[in-house]
Amino acid sequence: MDxxxxxxxxxxxxxxxxxxxxxxxxxxxxCIGKCSKHNPDLNGKVYGFLNGxxxxxDTKEEFFEKIDKLEPFQLNxxxxxxxxAFLEHLEKWRDEHEKLRELCLACQLTEELKWGQPCxxxxxxxxVIIGGFKNYIALTFFKGALLKDKDRMLVQQTESVQAGRQxxxxxxxxxSERETMIKAYIEESIEIEKAGLKVPVEKKAEIPIPDELQxxxxxxxxxxxxxxxxxxGRQRGYIFYFNGAKKSETRISRIEKCMDKIFHGLGxxx
Length: 270
Fold this sequence. Notes:
Pfam families: DUF1801 (PF08818), OmdA (PF13376)
CATH topology of the largest domain: Aspartate Aminotransferase, domain 1
Mean pLDDT: 85
Radius of gyration: 22 Å
Strand content: 15-25%
CATH class of the largest domain: Alpha Beta
Number of strands: 9
Helix content: 25-40%
Domain YdhG-like: 93-190
CATH architecture of the largest domain: Alpha-Beta Complex
Low-confidence stretches: none
Structural class: alpha+beta
Largest sheet: 5 strands, antiparallel
Number of helices: 9
Distance between the termini: 34 Å
């Protein structure tokens, strides 16, 4: 448990030199999802999150005075040190990961690290997982197909995915703007899990493995082992992709280009 105040400010938008805060408490300096560029009322103000509460002051002195009066901030006891370590070394989508993490923990879910990503569970049942992709970060609901989705925000990653659905974001500002909606989706997912509801699953037709992939498995047993170590969904994603090529040489080329990702346990869209 952390015994220092928690201070979150943006080095570009807070209205003062954030280095002055180094001895004030547990300071996080990054985009906080609040910016005078998008919020004209913040122009000329000094602002940031103090112990999780967004605080706006007219002067730096007033802001610092509020910091000096802060009580020690108790970290969420559900925070998992494995996820702390994961985020510490994350280069892309770090701020977005942390904001989505905050929202998941606020809903009293248990935090774990599964498949190398922050995953949130209820009574050992997976509810939602955070994952960074090339062009977006996603909050994936394991039983998303059962959500009402009145805002029509959920994305079905591929046609072969039956249960999971994603909320996708490209910035921490977007996450902050949709915070209420995100929490509502998480809370609904929790109620679905508590009720023991299950997604009706259609039996999937067997997807033929292309000859070119079979040959690669025969020639490279290590690659075969890496491929079958992937989740079934990732395996199907690759097979769909390889089968999508009409010419044999194109299928071979696709397989060669994907080998490194497969050896690293990644899916076609990771």
